[in-house]
Design a protein that fits this description.
By secondary structure, the chain is α+β, with helices and mostly antiparallel strands. 29% of the residues lie in helices and 20% in strands. It has 17 helices and 20 strands. The chain is globular, with a radius of gyration of 22 Å. The N terminus is likely disordered. The structure holds flavin mononucleotide. The site of flavin mononucleotide has 19 residues, from helix 5 and strand 18. Flavin mononucleotide binds next to helix 5 and strand 18.
């Protein structure tokens, strides 16, 4: 039985998704539907394993590359595909980076953040001529840093190839967050894709999305195999990324048919207390192809970059890239005092522009559709207030027409497209809008990502996912750039949607805020014990 093809649609995907978005908004007086109570002991297993199949341990050495953060995007000779490079690459992108312990509880942190640390995304490895690994499809088991054999092919390829596939297990997220969880899965996926693109650059590889139909992605990863998933939580196929060692126009496609399958997935939650069927509706409605530029073009290196201070000028401000990727954490609290230096602020903003060197913008090189608004609290040389960083000329023009007419649109930087909309202290506003969370007020600044909404989703319902990916990618660039400079970021998935829109003057759904992100000076919790990932 093919579960994937069986789901029927009663309505058009566009209106289903708009309805999903509407009903999963948080309001001051009412949160989106979620579980009434939580039993943390009943949390679904954060690690899926595949039983009844062979598995291979990956090398456990810490990934070491002597490349400074400022040189991450520089061209370098590609490393060969072998188990050592694959292991290091996974460690820097999707693996566990540390265990934390407190009061008898232990939990793992990974190279990318995840809403509630619930990690809905699963990683797949497709290997051809990867030295030390038989050709085939593997599930990456990040708890033990192993790959579990899932499928093999009898068709030999003469070219080496390495792909990562991604799927989401929405239940992991829905268990805690209810109906809004599908949004979080997609924001997480944006973080994952950015983490992969950044890590790939260290190996001289370029990460590129493969343009396949959603059915082909599900088929390639085997997530459409209803009989294998019978009685356990479904996985929603998301994307396949090719790792390229050479600059070519075409993105190599992975094998789409496998000859032999093995293994069965573990059950994550034996006693689910709730059901949120609207999540599956949103997942099915948002299946579709990539946006046009990604579907067609090679994506070249950006032409011109804004001038920002180079951290290479100051070695203490320029740690090793591996260190930045491995030490990335979300701040749980900010100090509410420190002023972010102007140079760091400008580097963070520059990394969000499509012209920046941040490797993710070569993976995601379609026209920008998500634009950051900033609630600035403590940034050197910048009055507190509301700012906008349109990421394209079109974004500037269209948001100029859409936002509150009384905004001042004062250019606030000589190089970056930063505009001050309103000068005002905004801590209380930021806290209120972000579900009353202190991090939004105690940060140096808090971002609100505004997405062009109705038009892209009408043109292609898969844009519902892609807009969230883009926002997740933006958050990831900001957090890494902050981390490199000794500051830190935290994603904020909980915010009052329409209160944001009221502040910005957005009266309809042509634009929607889909993510918040705070950057500041972290305050660490000394009670938490940190343990190594695998060593
Ligand atoms: C999409 C998304 C939404 C998040 N929302 C919140 C939030 O509303 N409040 C918060 O304190 N942290 C939030 N976080 C941060 C996570 O709690 C954090 O990433 C997770 O606990 C893992 O910790 P780490 O990032 O240090 O690895 C969010 C993270 C992501 C990726």
């Amino acid at each position: 039985m093919n579960r994937y093809r069986e789901i029927s649609m009663n309505n058009d995907p566009n209106s289903l998704l708009r309805a999903y978005h509407q009903r999963t908004k948080h309001h001051f007086e009412r949160y989106a539907a979620g579980p009434g109570s939580l039993d943390w002991d009943a949390q679904p297993d954060p690690f899926r394993t595949w039983k009844g199949t062979r598995w291979y341990s990956l090398p456990r050495e810490s990934p070491a590359r002597e490349i400074p953060w400022s040189a991450l995007a520089d061209a370098r000779p590609p490393e060969p595909f072998d188990t050592a490079s694959l292991s290091a690459f996974l460690r820097l992108s999707v693996a566990i980076t540390a265990w934390k312990e407190y009061g008898g509880n232990r939990w793992a942190l990974r190279a990318h953040p995840s809403s509630g640390n619930l990690h809905p995304s699963e990683t797949w490895v497709i290997a051809y001529w990867v030295e030390g690994l038989a050709d085939g499809l593997y599930h990456y088991q990040c708890r033990d840093h192993t790959v579990e054999w899932r499928a093999e092919t009898l068709t030999a390829s003469d070219l080496p190839g390495l792909w990562l596939g991604f799927s989401s297990i929405p239940w992991r997220e829905a268990w805690k967050y209810g109906e809004r969880a599908f949004r979080y899965c997609q924001l997480d996926m944006g973080h994952v894709l950015a983490a992969v693109a950044h890590a790939a650059a260290l190996f001289g590889w370029r990460a590129r999305l493969v343009n396949l139909s959603p059915e082909a992605v599900a088929h390639c990863l085997g997530t459409d195999r209803g009989e294998d998933y019978a009685g356990v939580e479904a996985e929603e196929a998301e994307a396949i990324v090719a790792l390229q060692t050479e600059e070519t126009d075409t993105v190599p496609a992975p094998p789409l048919e496998w000859d032999e399958w093995s293994g069965l997935p573990s059950l994550l939650d034996p006693k689910p207390l709730y059901r949120w069927p609207v999540i599956e509706t949103a997942a099915v409605a948002s299946r579709g192809g990539l946006p046009p530029a990604l579907a067609g073009e090679a994506g070249s290196a950006p032409a011109s970059r804004p001038v920002v201070d180079n951290p290479a000028d100051n070695p203490t401000d320029n740690p090793l890239a591996t260190q930045v990727l491995l030490q990335r954490r979300s701040a749980q609290a900010f100090d509410g005092r420190s002023t972010l230096p102007a140079a760091t602020f400008r580097r963070i903003l520059a990394s969000l522009l499509p012209s920046s060197a941040a490797p993710v913008w070569r993976l995601w090189n379609s026209a920008p559709r998500v634009h950051p608004a900033l609630l600035v609290h403590r940034v050197e040389g910048l009055p507190a207030g509301l700012y906008l960083l349109p990421r394209s000329e079109a974004g500037l023009a269209e948001l100029g027409a859409a936002l509150r007419p009384e905004f001042e649109w004062l250019p606030a930087d000589a190089e970056l497209p930063l505009y001050r909309l309103l000068a005002a202290r905004a801590e209380r506003t930021a806290r209120n809008l972000s579900c009353h969370q202190d991090i939004a007020a105690m940060s140096a600044f808090t971002l609100m990502f505004i997405a062009e909404f109705d038009a892209p989703i009408e043109a292609n319902p898969a844009a519902y996912r892609h807009l969230h990916w883009e926002a997740g990618m933006l958050g990831h660039c900001a957090t890494l750039e902050a981390e490199a400079a000794g500051w830190r970021g935290t994603g904020i998935g909980c915010f009052f949607d329409d209160a944001d829109h009221e502040l910005l003057g957005l009266a309809d759904t042509r634009w929607q805020v889909i993510y918040h992100f705070a950057i500041g000076m972290p305050v660490d919790d000394p009670r938490l014990l940190t343990l190594p990932a695998y060593e």
